[in-house]
Request: fold
Amino acid sequence: MEKKGRVFSGARPTGKQHLGNYLGAINNYVALQNDYDCVYAVVDIHALTTMETTKDLKANTLDMVLDWLAAGIDPAKSIVFVQSHVPQINELHVILSMVTMLGKLTDLPTFKEKVRQQPQNVNYGLVGYPVLMAADIVLYKTNLVPVGVDQAPHIEFTREIVRSFNYRYNTDVLIEPQMKVTEFPKVLGIDGQQKMGKSLDNHIEMAATPEETQKRVMMMVTDPQRKRRSDPGNPDVCNVYSLHKTFSSPDEVKMVNQECRTAGIGCVDCKKLLAKNINSHFVPFREKRAELAQKPERIWEILEDGADRARVIAAETIREVRDAIGMP
Ligand code: ADP
Reply:
């Protein structure tokens, strides 16, 4: 079947994936596989910009890829690989850096946030992070990038770099990508305030045990106005309710909505139901993951095969880019 184009997305090897990754990105990675040529990268070079230690890099790569495959990414259909296994990325990164204005990079909200988070380590790579991300996207001639909404400034930035390059060298070899978010562009953490993420320790892992899942769900912050069991609640401002909408049946969602508003159900019971439903949702995933984890050498083979396939696309793009620039 004729494919609609190329999809690329990457994520730093942060280890086990959480519901934010799952609902915000991985669900789209899986869904797009039938209609697009998909390329999914573990972006280990990006990880170096923020990591204090690299001792877990391999283990985290394995954990992340296990989650991806167990969630339904099919290496027979999609290319799954490690960013640094395709060296052309470094060449394109440097080339694109020449059409990127430094002031724009330092103005990006994502850069400013990183400076706040790690003031003692504002390294050169951190400033160039969006250029490296743009290089990833254009190296694979990407049309569509499935990501969470936190990545919007980076995608817009990529589009600008593409325009600058094409204008500067009077060419159209680089493609301006579009961003694609899921119906959960920003999943909130168990604090109910901030984006779910590992660094804030406000996350729930897909591969958590049922007990861990229940423990984390019970910690979730609900409608802050609902102080007592007898107070009616407002599901519209409750993160537990928003997760019910994904993990619970339509009847349960309706029940929770009605009973919360009339104080018919308390937050404890509401969370227990959510934990139960999250756990049932992930039963097949967790079984498949455990099975895949038995053979880690198979995962490394998949990643090697992915890199072989990715290098073919990368080599072609680099050839075209060098031609467009007029490099000897
Ligand atoms: P990276 O920093 O490499 O992007 P993350 O683990 O932060 O790694 O994110 C991986 C993917 O998951 C990205 O597409 C990101 O936008 C998405 N994502 C992460 N957290 C959330 C969240 N809380 N809600 C929605 N999407 C998210």
In short: DSSP finds 14 helices and five strands in the chain.
